[in-house]
Specification:
Blueprint lengths: L2 H79 L5 H84 L2 H13 L5 E5 L2 E2 L8 H10 L3 E2 L6 E3 L21
Parallel strand pairs: 1-4
Antiparallel strand pairs: 1-2, 3-4
Helix pairs in contact: 1-2
Length: 252
């Protein structure tokens, strides 16, 4: 296998790891945004429960005040009844008292309903507050882990990009341009192994003469079907310096 082909294979491996790191780095902000949106939705739900509980308590207090007002009114009406001079006046006072008592019963019934509604609301608020506290801690922990992992990934990415520049500088320009052209065409995968007479990427059988030449010369050759750079020997060592002698791309 030629030094140039070794470099191309190594370059493909570097580009694969670079792409993985870039994808991971770009995924962290999306992940953080997602868990923050979830946290916000839980916070809004808690605020809604708190508002409902506050409204419940406010209405109960208002009804209790209304009951007190009606009771005071009844007390005054009864005093006035004692001074009624005719049956009609007496019945009029009694009618007003009956109305006030009906309003009191309505208010008391509503208070009972509100008390029944407040119990689950209070429980929901307590459970949500406890869960939200734990969730906030978890979100902060994940954000810190994401920041640390991003820093590590950026450092690793910088090393890989430096190594890539070295490989690119050692490759003949015509081979590098071919590599980039093929990589752009095939979504980042420019190199494939030839296994059992077939391209491992497109799985099309190679011509016997082409396959023998690939095995015999170890030069940079392109698959006649998909155009990827092929290599025969899957066991590649990158130790030592690559041969800097010029090389050309063999046309199929």
């Amino acid at each position: 296998m030629s030094p140039d082909l070794r470099l191309v294979i190594h370059l493909q491996d570097l580009d694969k790891r670079i792409a993985e790191l870039q994808a991971e780095i770009s995924a962290f902000p999306k992940h953080i945004a997602s868990i923050e949106r979830t946290l916000d939705s839980h916070l809004r739900k808690l605020e809604a429960d708190r508002a409902a509980l506050t409204a419940n308590q406010r209405e109960r207090k208002s009804l209790e005040g209304a009951i007190q007002t009606q009771e005071q009114k009844i007390s005054k009406l009864r005093d006035q009844m004692m001074e009624a001079k005719t049956n009609e006046q007496y019945r009029a006072f009694q009618k007003e008292i009956d109305y006030c008592q009906q309003e009191i019963r309505k208010a008391e019934d509503r208070i009972l309903d509100l008390m029944g509604e407040s119990d689950p609301l209070e429980q929901n608020v307590k459970v949500a507050e406890a869960a939200l506290k734990v969730e906030k801690q978890k979100v902060e922990q994940e954000k810190e882990e994401a920041r640390c992992r991003t820093a590590e990934d950026r450092a690793a990415l910088a090393e890989l990009q430096t190594a890539r520049k070295v490989d690119v500088s050692d490759l003949p320009p015509n081979i590098y341009s071919t590599y980039e052209r093929v990589r752009a065409k095939h979504k980042g995968v420019a190199v494939a192994e030839a296994v059992d007479g077939r391209c491992s990427a497109c799985h099309i059988a190679l011509r016997l003469q082409f396959y023998q030449e690939l095995r015999g010369t170890g030069q940079v050759m392109l698959c006649e079907s998909c155009g990827r750079i092929l290599y025969y020997n899957p066991s590649v060592s990158f130790e030592g310096e690559a041969d800097s002698s010029p090389s050309t791309v063999a046309n199929p």
